Structure formats: C-alpha cells, structure tokens
Amino acid sequence: MEDKRKRVVIDCDPGTDDCMALMLSIKHLDVVGIVAVGGNTGLKYTERNARFMTELCGRPAIPVYAGYDQPMFGKAVRAAYVHGESGLGKVVIDEPKKKLEAMHGVDYLIDTFMNNDDISLITLGPLTNVAQAILKEPRLRERIPEILCMGGSAIAGNYNAVAEFNIYVDPEAAKIVFESGIPIRMVGLNLTRQNSITMEDVEMMRSIDTKVSRFAAELLSFNAGKSGKCSICDACTVVWYIDPAIIKKSLMTHVDVETKGEFTRGMTVCDWRNHMGLDPKTDIEHGEACDIEFEMKPANVDVAMEFDIDRFKKLLFDTLRSYD
User: Fold this and answer.
1) Cβ neighbour number for residue 95 with a 10 Å cutoff
2) Left (φ > 0), alpha (ψ -120 to 50) or beta: where does 51 sit?
3) CA–CA distance, 72 with 129 (Å, rounded to integer)
C-alpha cells in the first residue's frame, strides 16, 4: 500500500521540544532522514538524541546524519538552562545501538534535494547546515520545495528582547536561508507562546503509560516543573504539516534577518506596515489594515499567527496513546 504521508527531512538539535516534534513526525509523516546540528546542546548530544528517538519510536531505519556543531561565525551559544546539558533534561539514556551515518549532514541535504522532487525540509534548530548546503550547492534554491522553520518571532524574542534562540545562534546562516528564495513557513515565538504544557498535562502523559509517553512525561517535567508550564515550540511547528488546521491563521510578509545591530542581532524583522492595527490595543491586524504609500519588498515568508491549543493537545495525546 502506498505511503501517502508527507515526505520530509528534519534538521534539528534535540533538545526536549525537538524530541516531542520527532515523536509526532515519526508517527504522522514520512521522515526520510534526520540531520543533527549543534544548538540547544552540542552536536555529540544532538546526534545521539536523534538516534535515540528513532529507536524509542520504533523507526531505527530512519538514517541520522551529523552536520555542523558551530555557527558560521562567532562562538557557539547553548541552552542547557532550558534543555539540560545533554538536551534531555534529567533523563539519562544509554548509547543507542543505532549508528550514525558516515556521510556529513550537509552532503546528505544536497544529495537528497538534488535527487528528489517531493521532499520538504523541516528545520527545528539553527540554520547552519541548511545555509552551508546552499553555499556548497546553490542549485538547492530551486530544488528545495519549501522550508517549515521553527525560528524567529513576529514580535518579541527570548534570547534577547527581539531575537529568538535558533536565529540568534547563527543569524548569518538564517540570513542566507531567508534570502534564498526558497518558500518558507515560519513558526516563531509569537505562535509557540500560545501553547502551554502544564504539569497536569505531564501527568496525563505519564498516565497513558506507554514507553514513549513515560519518556515524554519525564522529559517535560524538567521544563514544566520550573514554572508550572512550558512551550514545546518544535512540536508546534511540525503540526503545520500533520494537521494544518492547528495553525488557524498565517500572514505572508517580507522577513529580513538582522546580523549587525547592537541590540537587534538575530531579529527576524517582519514588515507589518500594512498590518498596523487601527485599534491602539492591537499592534498587528491579522488582515491588511493600512495602505502604505512606500514600496515594500515582496513577501517571502508565511508567518504563523494563531494556534488551536485544544486541537494540538488532542493530537499530542492521541499520538502518545498510539505508541504501544
């Protein structure tokens, strides 16, 4: 029987929320391959965690490749304070039996997209691997049908006032990708903050009592236990392919990536001039509100704006129950 699930390659830096995204993706999408990048933690952990997730989810045949550990310029920035030193909070795992593929992750990206027409790219970490692949093989600009990207924000940041972590870690790489001409769907902090996993949700996962759900509960108890709730940003991203109705609203606009600003390095600069709210309580209208006399750059990114939290949680819990 033909597998009609959407075919994807996932470039990620697992990371607690990456692990949740992989659980959803492996069940509902045709994951052709996974490429690890340094981000939430170092590459020695992110590639290991990716291999572990394929085993945990019963799909060890999915190949896992290692890409770059460091950003294109500057020093690596990590998020151990969010994900733990190993990327898995306080969860301790054994070395997976599954082996890492020998090919470099960037070469895998080039080979895959130069030889396939029906695979999309999901990025859940810094965009170092993707940018390096584009630089090495510029024809990827015409070969990658679409990038579904967790990164950036339509409004405020988290690493600093305006920059989201994934973009801040390697803004030069993000700039290359966002200026590549490849269609991009961006799931930023403005969207993912609409999703909160509470300790009650964590206990619900634990009560499902499968190997995968127990792991998810242990993983997220590290994050949610700090303040009583957490956002699993990467899982919010992959659902745009799994159940598009969960993303209730998106807006096409032009997005630039700032690489030079003293206070704004890593910012995704979204041009909302024709969406400025007329009501002083609304900054961004979710439909055109103003006529702008100045010439604007063409829209290059579809920015997610509204999220259906109830539909998302139903998908998440149903997926965890399906792992037995």
Assistant:
1) 8
2) alpha
3) 9
Helix (H, G, I), strand (E, B) or coil at 275: helix
CA-nearest of 207, 305, 182, 213 to 252 is: 305
Neighbouring C-alpha atoms within 13 Å toward the C-beta of 13: 36
Range(s) of the domain holding residue 307: 7-322
Domain count, the chain: 1
Domain annotation covers residue 218: yes
Closest among 308, 304, 306, 309 to 153, alpha carbons compared: 304
Q: What is the DSSP letter of 2?
A: -
- Is 117 part of the annotated catalytic residue set? no
* pTM, to two decimals: 0.96
What is the per-residue pLDDT for 201? 96
Say which residue the tokens 């290692």 belong to: 66
DSSP, residue by residue, 11-27: EE---HHHHHHHHHHHH
Separation of alpha carbons 289 and 287, rounded Å: 6
| Contacting residues for 147 by C-beta, under 8 A, at least 6 apart | 120, 121, 122, 123, 130, 177, 182, 183, 184, 185
Reported as a single tens digit per residue, the pLDDT across 217-241 is: 999 999 887 788 899 999 999 999 9
280: in domain: yes
Residue 280 scores a pLDDT above 90: no
**Using CA atoms, how far apart are residues 301 and 185, in angstroms rounded to an integer?**
6
Residue 2 lies in a domain: no
pLDDT tens-digit map of 171-187: 999 999 999 999 999 99
Say yes or no to pLDDT of 80 above 60. yes
From the list 3, 11, 13, 291, the catalytic residue is 13
CA separation for the pair 222, 240 (Å, rounded): 26
As a whole number of angstroms, the distance between CA 49 and CA 19 comes to: 8
Beta 7-12 vs 30-36: how paired, if at all?
A: parallel
73 domain-assigned? yes
Identify the CATH number of the domain in which residue 171 sits. Answer: 3.90.245.10
